[in-house]
Amino acid sequence: MCQGGDFTDFRGTGGESIYGRKFEDENLTLKHTTIGLLSMANSGPDSNGSQFFITTAPCPWLDGKHVVFGEVTDGFDTLGKIEAIGSKSGAVAQRVLIEDCGQL
After folding, report:
1. Contact at 8 Å (CB) between 32 and 40?
2. Do 5 and 17 contact (CB within 8 A), yes or no?
3. Which phi and psi (to 5°) does residue 59 adopt?
4. Which of 25, 66, 85, 90 is the most exposed place for a label (fewest CB within 10 A)?
5. CATH for 1-90?
6. Which of 10, 3, 11 shows the shortest CA–CA distance to 42?
7. pTM score, two decimals?
8. Burial class (CB in 10 A: 0-12, 13-18, 19+), 1
9. Which residues does 98 contact at the CB level (< 8 Å), separation at least 6?
């Protein structure tokens, strides 16, 4: 998976939302069944902030724990390139920055 959204600490330990520091889980019914699903990263129940992840494979162990809120519909080649510079530990070989993509 590829994780991002920590715009306060820039190392996966921070972030906040428009609702304040954390907000509750909204819907845990959608499953992590395929590549390209967008989900909220969290540190436990009802602890969502600004961090999110994109699945690069099915991740059934995340079902019922992380809210799926969208999906990638284009740019899977870019997702593959981002995944390729990552590691199992989470460290990346170089900084990844998505900007001026024309989408929010």
Report:
1. no
2. no
3. -135, 70
4. 90
5. 2.40.100.10
6. 3
7. 0.86
8. middle
9. 4
CA dist 5 and 48 (Å) reads: 11
Residue spans of the domains in the chain: they are 1-90
d(CA 51, CA 13): 9
Q: Which two tokens stand for residue 24?
A: 């509750």
**pLDDT tens per residue, range 75-85:** 899 999 999 99
Q: Using an 8 Å Cβ cutoff, are 15 and 7 in contact?
A: yes
On the CB side of 8, CA atoms within 13 Å amount to 9
**What does the alpha-carbon distance between residue 6 and residue 8 come to, in Å, rounded to a whole number?**
6
14-70 pLDDT per residue, tens: 888 888 778 999 999 999 999 999 999 999 999 999 999 999 999 999 999 999 999
CA distances from 77 to 12, 34, 62, 96 (A): 24, 16, 24, 14
